[in-house]
């Protein structure tokens, strides 16, 4: 029995679930990352921004009907007065002067009645668009492109997910607005036949009240739909602009520079700085060394505040400095504490700090004595 149990234990098949892998973990092209600021800015330049035409239409209609409601009596009297004027002069001879007068009167009437509404609508349209997308003027969306004539691309746009969503939104808007219109008209339908018993001003006043009430109710519905659509468009734009991890890395390389290229540039800069430093070694007055690990080249001229460090190095660079010094007969002085202190405290091109004046002065005095002795012997 034990042998059978052992055999069954050894030959028991592995569970299938142990071989299930989540392949999404290995998919490098998934758009899982939020769009970067650069990605959003580039998309905005191309006109790819989250904006709702329903929201713009709602505010434009609201402003138009609001101004029309405020100026309704003024507009009515202007049109009535001009109509009375025209019909009262129909018995006059029609000539060029009378036609021009009528034409000028029509322009003046439009300027007094329609122009304020048009200006208000234009200002509201610009304001709501600026609220949604900011100051963003571009012509890329209306530029002629040959790929727009490609029927395959056209079918792809028609039957895309975005087009399907737009169609569903349009049907939903028609249904909602249609319902409110039907409800409003059915409520006031029985009141309309009695208007035939009123005079014209009273009938127009009653009809205008009904029209404005219906318009503002429908505009309220459109505005609610517009706000919902605006939130959806912003979300959809973000989804369309999402990036893969590789795209984020590539963008960082483009904006900050390829690390390999940056490394080569830094290496070249170090080489150039090293070459310039080595050119200053033959001009130095003394090389302070410890003697194997550090080497610091000092230079002092009349008028300097303090001696200047023109070159310094460690290990191989220190050895190179000392070789150049020997080739150019620059004195080399061994002073371990001073060499270490200068290497640690002073950068190339800086002067010696005040706490090292005494030690450096002693070294320079020693070097000057050597030079004077050589001159006397010569």
From TrEMBL:
The keyword Cell membrane applies. Pfam families: Bac_export_2. It is found in: Cell membrane. Its main location: membrane. The chain crosses the membrane at residues 55-72, 102-128, 171-190, 210-232. Gene3D superfamilies: 6.10.250.2080, secretion proteins EscU. It is a multi-pass membrane protein. One of its GO terms (cellular component) is plasma membrane. Keywords: Bacterial flagellum biogenesis, Bacterial flagellum protein export, Cell membrane, Cell projection, Cilium, Flagellum, Membrane, Protein transport, Transmembrane, Transmembrane helix, Transport. The keyword Protein transport applies. GO terms for biological process: bacterial-type flagellum assembly; protein secretion. Belongs to the type III secretion exporter family. Required for formation of the rod structure in the basal body of the flagellar apparatus. Together with FliI and FliH, may constitute the export apparatus of flagellin. This is Flagellar biosynthetic protein FlhB. The gene is flhB.
């Amino acid at each position: 029995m034990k042998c059978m149990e052992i055999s069954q234990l050894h030959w028991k098949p592995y569970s299938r679930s142990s071989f299930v892998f989540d392949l999404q973990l290995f998919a490098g092209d998934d758009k899982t990352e939020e769009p970067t600021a650069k990605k959003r800015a580039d998309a905005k330049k191309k006109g790819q921004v989250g904006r709702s035409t329903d929201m713009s239409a709602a505010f434009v209609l609201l402003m138009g009907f609001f101004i029309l409601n405020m100026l309704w009596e003024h507009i009515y009297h202007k049109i009535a007065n001009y109509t009375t004027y025209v019909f009262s002069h129909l018995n006059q001879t029609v000539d060029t002067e009378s036609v021009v007068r009528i034409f000028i009167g029509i322009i003046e009437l439009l300027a007094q009645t329609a122009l304020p509404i048009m200006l208000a609508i234009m200002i509201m349209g610009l304001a709501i668009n600026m609220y949604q997308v900011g100051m963003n003027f571009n012509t890329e969306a209306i530029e002629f492109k040959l790929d727009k004539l490609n029927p395959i691309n056209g079918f792809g746009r028609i039957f895309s997910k975005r087009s399907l969503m737009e169609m569903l939104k349009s049907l939903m808007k028609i249904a909602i607005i249609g319902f409110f219109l039907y409800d409003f008209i059915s409520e006031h339908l029985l009141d309309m036949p009695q208007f035939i018993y009123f005079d014209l001003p009273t009938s127009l006043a009653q009809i205008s009240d009904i029209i404005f009430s219906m318009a503002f109710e429908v505009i309220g519905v459109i505005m609610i739909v517009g706000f919902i659509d605006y939130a959806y468009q912003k979300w959809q734009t973000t989804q369309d602009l999402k990036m893969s991890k590789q795209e984020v890395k590539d963008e960082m390389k483009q904006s900050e520079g390829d690390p390999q290229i940056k490394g080569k540039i830094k290496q070249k800069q170090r080489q150039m700085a090293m070459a310039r430093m080595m050119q200053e070694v033959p001009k130095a007055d003394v090389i302070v060394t410890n003697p194997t690990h550090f080497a610091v080249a000092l230079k002092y001229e009349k008028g300097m505040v303090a001696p200047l460090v023109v070159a310094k190095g460690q290990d191989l660079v220190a050895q190179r400095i000392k070789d150049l010094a020997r080739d150019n007969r620059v004195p080399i002085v061994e002073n371990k504490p001073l060499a270490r202190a200068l290497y640690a405290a002073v950068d190339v091109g800086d002067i010696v700090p005040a706490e090292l004046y005494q030690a450096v002065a002693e070294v320079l005095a020693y070097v000057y004595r050597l030079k004077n002795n050589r001159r006397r012997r010569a």
